Amino acid sequence: MTTSGTDTSVVVIGAGQAGLSVSFYLKRLGLEPGNDFVVLDRGPGTGGAWQHRWDALRLGSAHRVADLPGMDALGLSFETADRTLAARDVVADYYAQYETFYDLKVVRPASVTDIQNAGADLVVNVWDPEGDQQVTTSIVVNATGTWGSPFVPWYPGRNDFLGRQIHTSDYVSAEELAGKNVVVVGGGTSAIGFLLELESSAASLTWVSRSPIVYLDDTELNIEAAVAAVAMADEAARAGKALPSIVSGTGVARTRRIQAGIDRGLLVAKPMFSAIEPTGVRWADGTFQEADVILWATGFRPELRHLASLKLREKAGGITVAGGTSWRDPRIFFAGYGPQASTIGANRAGRTIARQVVAALSRR
Ligand code: FAD
Fold first, then answer.
1. Nearest residue CA, atom 34 of ligand 1?
2. Which fold has domain 158-214+251-296?
3. Whole-model pTM?
4. For ligand 1, is residue 140 a contact (CB within 6 Å)?
């Protein structure tokens, strides 16, 4: 990296949908990439979290993936992307073309480890292959997503299980789990996707969910329900509370594939087990299910460890963020956080946050 000792006005952390969208609008508002603002991304490649997702995941198999702002100028759209290819490869390729086209000068691999207050400025500590570096800046836009912060709930006996426990973020392919007794935990689209994928290769499949699955009548995600779920996430972010799962607020659309899975009895979740034993899981009524693998499709939390020194966290468990701005420190912006945690939300965040950043710079 060539940012050692660099002063810049804005550091954007993360080059996923949110970070790229903010960068696009910052540039459009007249800031020069690599000079007025610097985008740091852990990488190793382009694509944000998508580059790490499993082979079989295709675009549109969960939800719509919105195009980045200005992507039409490249003649690209996720709507017309090749759905026979792995989503991770398509997104990595489109983001790479986008970064080049708009010359966003993303620095990677560059991992932000800590941010310190230095009077009116902020000192961003960064690790890259050349070692530790520091970048001094006026404003930080945090767009670090959630992929680096997998969430696994605690259940008694979790540490005594003799099989494998893997989280969505570790999942590679159905072949890897072929012939195994698999317990899938979670009530979202990832859990459903895993069940559909593993159906023909696992020795047995058991699905458990903490809350009953709410199947919608619609064959696509109900926009009304999504609006309500986004509003819930916004309310939590504004109150500095831990963020609720968007899926628990939206329900699951009955696509043709999902309806067929319900009809053949695959997509019927049991209630949560009460304990994990060395060779399986046990429910409160004494029922036991043997397991070689517990697959935790239990979601993610915002990745915020590198912000700890700024002491933004509230007693309520979250960070107070309203309209993308930290309530405790107005120099810190959050893109893709809470209500913005979808590709469409990340796009909107880009525009609003870039405007606020430029306004904040003009006040300094
Ligand atoms: P990310 O894509 O996670 O990007 C964050 C970037 O920040 C990464 O490149 C990361 O390396 C970098 N980073 C993190 N920490 C640091 C650090 N300390 N220093 C430097 N860089 C750092 N949404 C949809 O709209 N449609 C879908 O179909 C959809 N499918 C999904 C499927 C799965 C399995 C999951 C888990 C999520 C899905 N989502 C979907 C949500 C989706 O991930 C988001 O909408 C969007 O891609 C997130 O973009 P982001 O920029 O906020 O985060």
1. 190
2. FAD/NAD(P)-binding domain (3.50.50)
3. 0.94
4. no
